[in-house]
Each structure stands twice: as C-alpha cells, then as structure tokens.
Amino acid sequence: MQKHQKMANDYGAPKDRYDAFRNQMLRKRDQFAKQYQRALEDIQILEKIDPKINCEKAEFGAVVITNAHKLFISISLGKITVDGQDYFAISAKVPIYNAIEDLKKDDEFQFNGKKFKLLDVF
User: d(Cα 29, Cα 8) in Å, to the nearest integer?
Assistant: First the structure.
C-alpha cells in the first residue's frame, strides 16, 4: 500500500486527462488495503478458536473427519497441509457446513446426493 501511494505521490498530478498512472497506483493501494482489512478480520475470527477445547460435534473450531474429507471449520482458506495430511479449512457459511452442523462422530449425512459418515470430530 505504501509503495503504491509513494509511486502515485512521486508521479505527481496527471499529465493530461488520458494519463491514468496515478489513478492506477491509487486503485492498487486501495485494493491492497481491502485485502489487508479482510486478513485482519480473518485473524480476529481465528483468535476466537480455543485450541484447548475438544469439540464433540461439528461446530466452529472443530476438525471433522469424514469418509471423504478432513475439514477444519474456521475460515475459508482452502486446502492446508498439516503433518503431511490435507485438510480443507471451511467457513460456517459454506453449504457443506449446513449439512454437517451439530453432527457427532458416527453420524451420517447427505451432501450433493452422496452419503457421507463422520468418522471423527475433535
């Protein structure tokens, strides 16, 4: 953000009405500011997870192992690898969470026409 602000300042005022360099630098600065703000919000959400609590049902902060996926219910980060194991960090806003919400170990659920079983929740 600072780099693009400095470039825009160093460039000065637009040279003519078709000169978009300064505006482009300011748009990039604003884009990075939005991404930074979203990252700060995600960090605040992650800080709400207490790693000492062992979840017994599929809820925020839980790791859910199904016969097809390993899910970490937190924020949407996509695939993450921990100790050589692939997990999918999902938010509580995605459709699969609606299918597994409040389910416990050994419960079954259907998602996209397929049957799944919760092998473990912690």
Answer: 9
